[in-house]
Design brief:
45% helix, single chain, mainly alpha, 4 helices
């Protein structure tokens, strides 16, 4: 669905990084780990939240 607002493990706000991370990582010019380093996402749990997220809003929307 939508990217979680906070990390499930540590409670740090991760949603503010989603837009820029998605834009820069999907262009293919930058490695996702370098993008996360540049954004200041240091903890492994927070990095997991952004790297493993799949945006399924368009898939689920017709069923609501």
């Amino acid at each position: 669905m939508m990217v979680p607002v906070r990390c499930f493990t540590c409670g740090s706000v991760v949603s503010r990084h989603w837009g820029e991370f998605q834009e820069r990582a999907r262009e293919g010019d930058e490695d996702p780990s370098e993008v996360l380093d540049d954004l200041g996402v240091e903890r492994h749990c927070c990095r997991r939240m952004l790297v493993s997220h799949r945006d399924l809003v368009d898939v689920v929307a017709p069923y609501q």
